[in-house]
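Running this now, will post back.
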Amino acid sequence: MPNWVTNKLRAPKPVLESMVNDAGKLDFNKVIPFEGKDDWDAIYADAECTAEILIGRPLASDPMVANLQQYNRSRVDVPAMRSESRAQLLGMLENYRATGFLHCGEFAREKWGTRTNAIRPVVELEIGLCTFQTAWTAPVPLILALSAKFPTETLYLDYADEDIGRNCGTMTFQAGKVIQESIAPSRSEMTKEDEQKWRAFAFEVTGESPDDYKEYYE
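Update: finished.
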């Protein structure tokens, strides 16, 4: 279960409209589209592991992760795979040939900066605000790409992790670049004043009540 990050993006109406799909929902594919197959309810570990072997993907640089990957790969048994896994394996290989990514999750992490599309989006075009959640991180690469498409406009992003006071900040974008930012320091670098400042900021962004977190901060 990921930590959910609340994002508040402020931008002119045409900028936000460009992110809305035909169903009226905020859709990161409107900014940077994934051109592969993306209709699976879940990613099957055996299909993904087999696909990684077939494309010759190296093991992770982290030894612990690499050991786990090696173990999983040693258990691959294609003849014993379920038909659903085999079908997904073929789809992943087609995706890789077309896009360089096995599935949208891989694509999203690199191109959008988060592993999912927008979650619980609320778009308020008339006031130039959209609010949505993403997994673990704010979608900074996506906002950079959006900003590049509207180089004369200024975009403002406030984001805050559900771990109140951590992984939060504010960024200003123009012409595909970050022109100003204020990011919460890491836990080890925070002073008491920093903690108070960023907790207040995170409560404002997420809409959470400080009363619900008293036991953590007292």
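Residues 8 and 202 are 11 Å apart (CA to CA). More later if anyone needs it.
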